[in-house]
Amino acid sequence: MVPSPAEPGEGPSPALLALLEPEPLGELCVLDVGTGSGGLALALAPRCRAVVGVDRDARQIDEARRRAAAAGLASVRFVVGDVEVEEYAPFRPDMVVAHCCMSDAIAARAGRVLQPGRVLAFVAFHTDQWKETGRPSRFAYGEVGIKRLLKRTGFAVEHLAVEREVQTFETVAEGLAAAAGLEARWKADGRWPRYAKFLTEGGRTLTRAHLVVKARKA
Ligand SMILES: C[S@@+](CC[C@H](N)C(=O)[O-])C[C@H]1O[C@@H](n2cnc3c(N)ncnc32)[C@H](O)[C@@H]1O
Q1: Residue 34 alpha carbon to ligand 1 centre in Å
Q2: Do residues 85 and 178 touch, judged by C-beta distance below 8 A?
Q3: Residue 41 CA neighbour count, 13 Å, CB half
Q4: Residue 26 needs a FRET pair 20 to 30 A away by CA distance; which of 34, 131, 134, 177 works?
Q5: Which residue minimizes the CA distance to atom 11 of ligand 1?
Q6: Could you give the domains of the chain?
Q7: What does the alpha-carbon distance between residue 183 and residue 148 come to, in Å, rounded to a whole number?
Q8: What is the structure's pLDDT at 12?
Q9: Per-residue pLDDT reduced to its tens digit, 87-106
């Protein structure tokens, strides 16, 4: 079990990597959707036949390419693309993975491209993630919702765990300080004033929660 839930940019979840360990990675081409700066793709690359990381953010893809070159990894490549619009067949993946980037459209595309027996594994935001801000991520699912989605898209769930960490505070200032690294982002998306209101009205928590899932194409 991972000691604290993974956040984007903090590196791949050890719990997710452990779920992939029993798979014959050396034979597989793995597609990492919403790869960002490539943390998960780069961690998998030395063990896989090939890894492709796709993200719509060209700057993140540039950074992922820089990291791959610096690490001397030739088995990984990074592509700018929209993983909720494009189909995955051109990448010929044997496995689809995702770290904090999961949606109905992504699961549907994985379901269409993967052969029976192949794996879709991911970390997704749980609907309780930052619930104090009153606004779940559009990539967030609860346990029931993710099970329904995976069934609908042709997968049998082999592993589903919720990783949850609830920070508690004595004061408003402590609560604000705990989210200081998120302040600019939350100010831009409107979460910051809601979180400040939650704290000033007596709330004293900040919740992080993720689903860690491994599913196999039926
Ligand atoms: C929360 S970040 C996670 C990044 C990386 N997987 C990690 O864990 O560090 C979500 C990533 O998904 C990408 N993303 C979101 N929607 C996307 C889409 N429709 N197509 C491609 N990438 C997308 C974003 O650009 C961002 O890099």
Answers
A1: 3
A2: no
A3: 32
A4: 34
A5: 34
A6: 14-127+136-164+209-217 (3.40.50.150)
A7: 34
A8: 86
A9: 999 999 999 999 999 999 99
